[in-house]
Amino acid sequence: MVLPSCSRTTRLLAAHGAEIGAPYYPVPDQETFDALDDKWRFAGVCADLGLPVPLTRRFETMADLRRDPDYAHLEFPLILKPAAMSGGYGVRRIDSADALPEHLSYTPIICQAYVPGEELSAFYLCEAGKIFASFSYRRTLTKLEEIRVPAIDAHASRLVAHFRYDGVIGFDVRRRPDGEIAFIECNPRFWYHMEVAMLAGLNFVTLGCRLREGESGPPDSDTLKIRSPRRLCGNLLTPWRLNRAERAYLRYIVRDPAISGWAAFQSAIGRYRLAGGQLL
């Protein structure tokens, strides 16, 4: 089965999957993918469907932003980011007018109001506009834990049904201290931190393959809660205090061949970014 690994390969299968003569992982149609993968177009989709989204504007250059009639009334902080890049590339929080850069290395520029509060991530596997499996979590400085926010699921269900969506889709969401949420961007493809759901017992790759082959029934999974790597280090001598997900997470980290020996293990695990495997 052919698996897409990024935006380009997902779009390739969306456009030409039927021509390759081999089974492939479920993906949305090309028009849907293009509408959701672009941050500017996704903000428009949210507005059309009534999904909560921060005030979002689009500029070709920083000079265009400064020439905008509303420039003097910009509220800070705000977020600048590219329209169609992944992995957080180019995303910048700007706290004052003096901090606005003269130039950016990408175009167009998406300018979005900053939403205070916590960052949530929600992911779904869908078939013909229906959600088949889902996984949501939040990450803090001390832990990562699975959560369920009915409002996010309800809005996501409406979008998925509108597009009769097929395949995996993820949303970056901000939740204000008062509980109000805002959809920030969409990932209509495999996402960077898929291992988090896998550690919780939801392997989205396997589930999508089963969907394509006509099987059904996602596996049951325990609620995920993982403390930060530094906090886990403090319990290495008392492993009975670790839950199933934390033991799986430690096994996941130590499979890295670059980590060898106790000292290297302590150093590396302390610098691991929770839920990403990225070094701080």
From TrEMBL:
Residue ranges of every copy of the ATP-grasp domain listed in the record? 43-213
Name by which UniProt lists this protein: ATP-grasp domain-containing protein
Named from the GO MF annotations, one term is: metal ion binding
- Origin organism of this chain? Methylorubrum extorquens (strain ATCC 14718 / DSM 1338 / JCM 2805 / NCIMB 9133 / AM1) (Methylobacterium extorquens)
Record keywords: ATP-binding, Nucleotide-binding
Q: Which domain of life is it from?
A: Bacteria
Q: Name one Pfam family in it.
A: ATP-grasp_3
